[in-house]
Amino acid sequence: MRYEPRSRVRLPMPDGIGSYLRSRFVQAAEGGTAARRYGRWATGPEMSPHGLAALLSAIGGRPVSGLVIGAAGVALTARGLVEKTGAPPIEAVRPAVVDLTRAVGSGVRAARTTWWPVLAGMVVAGAATGEDGRRRRGLVRGALLAGSVLTVPHLASWRRRRGTAPVGPLGWTAVAVAGDAACALGTWWGVARSGSLAPLIPRVRSPLFSTSLESPQVGAGVEGSGAKPAWGSHVSES
Which residues pair with 212 in a beta bridge? Predict the structure, then answer.
């Protein structure tokens, strides 16, 4: 079999809940096999170190710590952009915030579709706990955060499609959460079948400012054009 970049593949749309869940399971199960075939050790979401740390802290029941880590990461990234590109501080903050937001969004999506059993277990533990005091508050807080990760993105998706969604918000969210569960089970099945842990491992990349590249064309400018600020000649890979 040869890979042909120009080829187009059309897949039939699922015509029922059963086929939808089965397709999510099968597609996710191929991740481990593909990673092993191509020798990749990590195929999870691409995240910055501070984005990953902030997300793990928040899901672990420490949202304040997650916010602090995220804010510190944004500040360090913006500072690095200022030092490397000469961009004004106010201009450097925006890409740093966007970078963190996208990283956390990718991590949340991966948490839903890969670590669904863990999040569901946190929800059950928080709802069923009979303990009192500080430990109970921690479990309940973790359950609320895990439940939000599992449901809020789908509620937001339904809201964006309001008027065209075939079902109401509860039905939409229930089917979407079931799809995430099928995807997570498929991912773990693929890991067990292939022996590759790559789908479970996030790809931690360097900070945004260390992957900035200077464009010679933009940096040199066009002959006869006005002078350009140094920070405008840098293009981010992300």
Answer: 236
Paired with 204 in beta bridges are 47
Residue 114's CB: how many other CB atoms inside 10 A? 24
Using the structure block, give the residue that is written with the tokens 């804010």. Answer: 71
Closest alpha carbon to 188 in 36, 28, 42: 28
Joined together, the tokens standing for residue 215 give 């464009």
50-74 pLDDT per residue, tens: 888 888 888 777 778 888 998 898 8
Q: What backbone torsions phi and psi does residue 236 show, to the nearest 5 degrees? A: -85, 140
Per residue in 216-225, pLDDT (tens digit) is 333 444 444 4
**Position 142 pLDDT exceeds 70:** yes
